[in-house]
Amino acid sequence: MSSALLEQLIDALRVLPGVGQKSAQRMAYHLLERERAGGQHLSAALSEAIEKIGHCVRCRDFSESEVCPTCASAARDAHLLCAVESPADRLAIEQATGYRGLYFVLQGRLSPLDGIGPRELGLDSLVARLAEGEVQELIIATNPTVEGEATAHYLAQLARQHAVKPSRLAHGVPLGGELEYVDRGTLSHAFGSRTEV
C-alpha cells in the first residue's frame, strides 16, 4: 500500500503532457530514491515560475515583465509581425531562422468545438496592433492542421482589413526528404503550392 503523499506526487506529475501513470510513478520514485536535492530545486523553480511569469502585454508570450525583451528591443523590425500558436513555436522560429521582426503569440488556434474563438486568442489585441499602422506584413506561422489553416485564413482577413500584407509559411516536402516517403497530404499540398524557379 502506497502512502498518500506518494500518490499525490504521482498524480501531480501526471499533469505534464505525455506522462501517464507508469511514467509518473517512475519519476516520483527516481526523485525520492536518487534526486531529493534535484526535486527540491525543481519544486522551488516551478513555484517561482508559476508565481512570477505572466504574459507580455504586446505579444502575449511568456514574460517576467509587462513587456518582454523581444518587444522592448529597438533592434527588432517593427514592420514585420509573425503570428504563432504557442511560445514553443516562437522559440523554434527564433532559434532556426534569422527572423528579426516581432511576434504575436495566439496561445492556441481557432476551434469552435472546443470553445476557442477570436476572444480567447487575443485577436482584439492583434487588431489594435495592426490598426497602429506600423506593421506592414503579418507572417502567419500557424500549424498545418485543420484548425491552424482556419486560423491562418481568419488572420489573413484581419490583415487585409488593415492594409497589412498577409503571408504564410511554406509547407511541403522536408529538406532532404524523398518523395516516395512523404505522406500523401503533404505531397498534395506541396504540389498544389508549387512556385516558379
Task: Give your account of this protein's structure.
It comes from Lysobacter yananisis. This protein is of the alpha/beta class and 197 residues long. The chain is 45% helix and 13% strand. The strands form 2 sheets. Strands 4-3-5-6 form a 4-stranded parallel beta sheet. A two-stranded antiparallel sheet has the order 1-2. It starts with a helix and ends in a 5-residue tail after the last helix.
Radius of gyration over C-alpha positions, nearest whole angstrom: 21 Å
- Helix residue percentage: 40-55%
Number of strands: 6
What is the number of helices?
Answer: 8
Distance between the termini: 68 Å
Helix/strand order: HHHEEHEHEHEHEH
Largest beta sheet: strand ordering: 4-3-5-6
- What's the shape? globular
Q: Roughly what is the average pLDDT, rounded to an integer?
A: 92
* Strand residue content: 5-15%
Largest beta-sheet details: 4 strands, parallel
Structural class estimated from helices and strands: alpha/beta
**Poorly predicted runs:** none
